[in-house]
Fold this sequence. Notes:
Elements: H1 3-15, H2 27-39, H3 45-55, H4 59-62
Subcellular location: Nucleus
GO molecular function: DNA binding
Region (Disordered): 1-27
Amino acid sequence: MSYSNQQKLKIKSHEANNRPKRKRITPNQLEVLTSIFERIKTPNYQLREMTARELNMTNREVQ
């Protein structure tokens, strides 16, 4: 197999991994989440939903 064919295979196998990139939280989101979790160790569903909407995140990301 030639060098260029090997390179093409590497690129194709890398492209096959179609996972979306991980979303990073902003410093502001981190600050808000930290302050909430310092006060309430296990926030309920309602608080997580409210926080998620406020921070433009999903409930799962807040969890």
